[in-house]
Design a protein that fits this description.
This protein is an alpha+beta fold and 99 residues long. 34% of the residues lie in helices and 24% in strands. A hairpin with a 4-residue loop joins strand 3 and strand 4.
Length: 99
């Protein structure tokens, strides 16, 4: 059974679209980018950790369900592009990104 659905079984309700999208992003970050990411269904958020000890990046689905957003919604990426979002987030937590 899918990890998301196992964790949500206690809530007795189907997962939201936001949680499904965040879980897809989590899987991509873990499997391809080798980045630690923890899904927090109670917050409808994904916590993404960099290699250095620091606070995690809080990722959520915003802008009407169209974007993954982080850094107080200053950074975002279309939910239709999971691969691209994972690459950008991985670069962000590794601080390889330009800003």
């Amino acid at each position: 059974m899918n990890m998301l659905f196992m964790r949500l079984a206690a809530f007795q309700q189907p997962p939201s679209l936001e949680l499904i999208l965040l879980e897809r992003l989590q899987c991509r970050l873990i499997e391809t980018e080798r980045v630690v990411a923890n899904l927090r269904p109670e917050l409808e958020a994904l916590l993404v950790y960099g290699p250095q000890p620091c606070l995690p990046v809080h990722v959520f689905v915003g802008y009407g369900g169209r974007y993954f957003s982080w850094q107080n919604a200053e950074k975002r990426h279309l939910v239709d592009d999971i691969e691209g979002a994972a690459e950008v987030l991985a670069a962000h937590v590794r601080r390889d990104e330009g800003s």
